[in-house]
Amino acid sequence: MPLPDTMTMLRALIAAPSISSTTPDWDQSNLAVIEHLHTWLEALGFNCEVMPVPGEPTKANLIATLGTGPGGLVLSGHTDTVPCDPELWRSDPFKVVERDQRLYGLGTCDMKGFLALAIEAAKSFADQPLKSPLIILATADEESSMSGARALVDAGRPKARAAVIGEPSSLRPVRMHKGMMMEAVRIEGRSGHSSDPSLGANALDAMQQVLNELSAFRGELQARHRNADFKVDMPTLNFGCIHGGDNPNRICGRCELEFDLRPLPGMSLEGLRNAISERLLPFGERFGVKLEARPLFPGIPPFETPANSELVALAEKLTGHTAQAVAYGTEAPFLQQLGMDTIIMGPGSIDQAHQPDEYLALDQIQPTIDILKQMISRYCL
Fold first, then answer.
1. In this structure, are residues 165 and 332 in contact, taking their beta carbons and an 8 Å threshold?
2. Cβ neighbours around 183 below 10 Å, total
3. Which terminus of the chain has a lower count of CB atoms within 10 Å, N or C?
């Protein structure tokens, strides 16, 4: 069957809702998107493997490979989107609408648009003998748990020499980003009448010391770790929310804190968690409470590809931009764990992502296809 043109592919991808969310009522399957990509890439001669995500019966990754052998290039994009508020959009978020030299729709920028453009770039190589494989990778749940990328690491594939993740970067290469940890501290005390503190164990009193200790830890991290490539050049620790107690005249029996920690490249998530536990757990005995520190999700490691890497040099040459550092997290550290030289570079701006009236500017489309073709030529021919 003839392969659809770029706009037809993009319209079909946007019309297939694939929201991923930690809230079950919002969370959706990505299998319709995977099926579209599978059909188109198979028609181009790619060998396609649909990889179910363990424990997620409605989620899957797609590994589509053209050619054989070692080395090669991965062009990677996630198939899911964030939730949206349709009433805040000027048009239907699940229909591509063109106006003002822009294509509007949920996922046009972040990042179904890249998948359509990667397939368009691949068309030129479908009938050419490749010395190394071209792999188009489509993943599940990047916007929530990153379970798709984690499943790839567990499976140990795909393997290639280099990988480009097409997250929106205005076609400027990205070689570094911070990690992301979301952690919780839960304290179980013992409630009682507030007129006699000896009747209970106040979870809020213990939490006050936890906050002081985490504040001190933040200061130590920021004194020891700096990276001038980042706009915010230090690790950050943000106290996001706290819940505790039920009435002024009762000793607080339970309190929970949730916080976000963003480490710089070179900092270990496991090491940070161990340090936090070592500092906080003694407060349990001191205040006579049960204290638990736990991750809310496994976390995203910080990511860095060396400035002198071959892939970074090629991307800088093709785009005319020096590789940069960004604050948001991606699947890059997971592909890097598979042994690939990895960068982030894709059409559209991160400023349009996760917002009503998300769009992809038309003037980003042909430059993206041209750059991807040159990268495929470099790594696969």
1. yes
2. 21
3. N
Query: Which residue range is the domain that position 215 belongs to?
Result: 181-295
Q: Are 168 and 354 within 8 A, CB to CB? A: no
316 is catalytic: no
Helical residues (DSSP H) of the chain, grouped into ranges: 6-14, 31-43, 112-122, 147-155, 203-224, 269-280, 282-287, 310-319, 332-337, 365-380
pLDDT at site 1: 63
Which tokens in the block code for residue 190?
């013992």
Domain end call among 260, 277, 295: 295
| Number of domains the chain is built from | 2
Tens-digit pLDDT profile for residues 119-153: 999 999 999 999 999 999 999 999 999 999 999 99
Domain boundary among 249, 265, 295: 295
Same-domain check for residues 97 and 193:
no
Beta strands in 37-169 (DSSP E): 47-53, 56-66, 73-78, 97-99, 102-104, 134-139, 162-165
User: Would you state the structure tokens that stand for residue 117, as one six-digit string?
Assistant: 């453009």
What are 46-83's pLDDT values in tens digits? 999 999 999 999 999 999 999 999 999 999 999 999 99
Q: How far apart are the first and last CA of the chain?
A: 26
The pLDDT tens digits for 227-237 are: 999 999 999 99
DSSP 3-state helix, strand, coil percentages of the chain (rounded to 5)? 35, 25, 40
- What is the reported pTM? 0.93
Same domain, 173 and 250: no
Residues 159 and 28 in one domain: yes
Q: Which of 142, 331, 341, 358 is catalytic?
A: 142
- The CATH number of the domain holding residue 204 is 3.30.70.360
In angstroms and rounded to an integer, the radius of gyration of the C-alpha atoms of the chain is: 23
What mean pLDDT comes out for the span 152-163?
97
Q: What is the pLDDT of residue 46?
A: 98
Q: What single DSSP character describes residue 263?
A: P
Same domain as 330, residue 221: no
Q: Could you confirm whether 80 is annotated as catalytic?
A: yes
